[in-house]
Amino acid sequence: MSVGRNRGFDLSRAVEAAMFTFWRQGFHGTSLSDLTKSMGINKSSLYGSFKSKESLFIEAVNHYAFIYGQPNRESLLNAKASNTAGKLQPYLLNIVDRITNSRYPGGCFIANSTCEVNDRSLPKEAVVAVEVLNQTSIKMLTNFFNTEIHNGNLDNTRSAESYANYVQSLQFGLAVMAKNHHSAESLQQVIELGLAVFRKEGL
Q1: Is the pTM above the cut of 0.85?
Q2: From which domain of life does this come (predicted)?
């Protein structure tokens, strides 16, 4: 990212403020005035530091992935439970804690942005940024399930990719439910049903 000189504000705080605004309102529903107000800067500072609304959005989704997604992915890959369901449960419950937390706008920023990709509300470079993050998530889950199959924790009659797509679909479903004000308890029940697949197919 190209940053303007003599910046009179904290860049990371500004990106986080923009992230929450985009998360709450979406790319299409967020104006430059919304961004400058939430970030506490003027338009010249925004353009000087981020060049465009699109570039700022890309910074925001990457910030979200780094702050919220990456630590949870690492916790899954380093989980010590003896079975697949036991490893997935805290990973999914952490997601529910975030997407139902009243401190946050509701739902998942990446899931919300993926919906904007599908209705063609995002510019091309922003679409690429969102798709890369989703592909990264699928790749991580596929690697996780490949390891589980290799270690004999899951039946190898299904592919790691199938399991990864299943969990990704579950994550997006949870995010949509949270966005529509379902309680954490109801989402936890969905997780238990989702994990039943792995308890059934675990070895």
Answers
A1: yes
A2: Bacteria
